[in-house]
Structures are given as structure tokens and as C-alpha cells.
Amino acid sequence: TVNVVDTTAPVVTPNGDTPTVELGATYVDAGATATDLSGDVTVVTTGTVDTNTVGSYTLTYTATDASGNVGTASRTVNVVDTTAPVFTSSATFSAEENQTAIGNVTAFDLAEVTFTVSGNELAITSSGVLSFVTAPDYETKTEYTATVTASDASSNSATQEITVNITNDPYDDETGTNTVTST
User: Is 105 left (phi over 0), alpha (psi -120 to 50) or beta?
Assistant: First the structure.
């Protein structure tokens, strides 16, 4: 008695190269092909790629022939973020003297953005609330400039030169007593 058996698993080969996908982009898998001595086999793909989250994802390709032999191969898909935040707020602000609030700096990015500011006259929270360290006096200085940096979780960053123009409080005299003299 001669038994002809198939103990050879299908050979599974991923199509294309190992892909890198930008955060937020659409990923279309190139799939895989399988060859087997017994003829055509179907390749089944398992795994997912979340293009909204930076990371490495594994897709597994499996082919089973008529004799139950199983062949597998895998592919790693890397989701990366190489895009810097884009400022969406104005580069010019206006603030009244004798108070510290200025306004909000905003930037668009698919990941969370944090902000920093240059110098020691202005302060900014990580969420973009811009203020003066010390309330300005119009009679002393009418314009402040600084560089704001917006950074995302992948260390991509963009900068914007900002200008804050100080407006005069008409009810404030030079002594700061909030009195008005009229004739």
C-alpha cells in the first residue's frame, strides 16, 4: 500500500513592502498570496490597523490547504505622526492695561497639543491660555512680542511669533489711582 499524503503547508507571502502610514490617513492593506502543491488556497487576514493611534500593528495572513496544512505570514504596519500642529489663532492680540488676561492660542493637530512661550513677560498654560506675568501699564510699554511653540505627543512642533498690543484704560491716570480729572 502506498499512501500519498500532503504534509506541506501553503507558503504565504505578504504583497508589497512593510508600510508606514501617517496618523489619520486611510490604510488599505496590500494583502498576501499563498501557493500550495494541492492547488489554489484562500488567504484570510486577521488583525486591525488603527490609523487614529500612533503605534505598530500586526496583520496575520493564514492559508489552509485541502489537507488541513496551515501556512502563515505577518506584516507590521507602523502608524506614525510626522505632521506638526498648525496654528489656528491670530498672531496678534489686544489687551487692556492693568490686567493679566490676554486670550487663547489654538492650534490644530490630530494629537493633543501643548503650548510654551518664550521670554519672561508672558505666560501660557499647556492648553493655550495666554496671560501676562505682571499686569502691563500702557504708559510704560504698549507692545509685547514672544514666540509661542505648539508641540504634539510625537514631538512635532510649530512656532508662531505673536504680538500683544496694550490698550489704554481711559479711566486710569498715570498714578494708577483710577481717577479722572475733568475741566
Answer: beta
pLDDT tens figures, 64-104: 999 999 999 999 999 999 999 999 999 999 999 999 999 99
Burial class (CB in 10 A: 0-12, 13-18, 19+), 60: middle
Instruction: Compute the CA torsion angle 24, 29, 30, 36 (nearest 10 deg).
Output: 160
Cα 18 to Cα 76: distance, rounded to the nearest angstrom:
6
Contact 89, 158 (CB under 8 A): no
Rounded to whole angstroms, the Cα distance separating 181 from 177 reads: 11
State pTM to two decimals: 0.76
SS3 14: strand
What one-character-per-residue DSSP string does 89-106 give? S-SEEEEETT--EEEE--
Split at pLDDT 50, 70, 90, the class of 180 is low
Instruction: List the end-to-end C-alpha distance of the chain, in Å, as a whole number.
Output: 126
Q: How do strand 122-124 and strand 113-117 relate by DSSP bridges?
A: unpaired
Residue 173, pLDDT > 80, answer no
Q: Phi first, then psi: what are they for 30, rounded to 5°? A: -80, -10
